[in-house]
Amino acid sequence: MEDEKIIKLISLKEVKGYGNKKVLEIVSNYKNLDTVFLSLLNKGVIRKEHVEKAKEIMKQCKNSEIEIITYFDKKYPQKLKQMNIPPILLFAKGDTSLLNKISISIVGTRKSSQKSIEWAYNMSKKLSEEGYIVVSGGAIGIDISAHKGILNSKGKTICVLGSGINNIYPKENEKTINIIMKEGLVISECPPKNNPNEFSLLERNRITSGLGDNIIIVSMDTKGGTISQYKTARIQKKKIFCPHPSLNLEPNEGIKKILATDNNIKLIKDIHEIKNYLLSRNNQKILENFV
Which CATH class is domain 96-287? Predict the structure, then answer.
């Protein structure tokens, strides 16, 4: 999309009360964007400061080689379009071709045991060897371990931030995330300099699971962001894999809790069970095409 149209979309997002849902309701395609923008400008909904802020964000992106992908662009990931409220803008740095390739999301709580962190690292490496892209959220604990596992096996990973790309959070993982920008892909719904907040971190979850064809929840407590991630993945109808409780990957109280009510979770001990499940699903789809 042309820079002028991107600036108009960013200006819309800068207006209070104009989130993804609202903007997608009034902008059905990029062709009517100019009409919508002019109408709201004349009504005083979009003001000069919104446009100036949008231009500044565009300048930041150009200076930092950050690509802006809009909902209407061809490279926008189809998997995200299947969500109830997809992000209308993605800020991306790295290999954007990864957005539409087969991937598996790996997530878990930040306060995980060393055993859980090592399991995530090794699972990520094995998935890389099988040709999968691993998606995670760059957080302390399971997320960053999954990223490191695939990087160390020369694979590809996508890191979804809850902050701006030029304001990496958490700072402890900045070195690894900068490597991902060069060897994989870092994306965010937030403009480059934005600070993270509770809302942006939770909103990140829907993109993390949304980009994955399936999701592995390594560890989970009964409260916190990973429970939110599980609920989001269910809404998105993702196949959810969890380590078998016998592996004692702690904390696993949350996993035990959801197992009591969710019969669709696939318990795994190693990558072979994931491979066998995916192979059986693919074979089933092939058979269905002949029926």
Answer: alpha beta
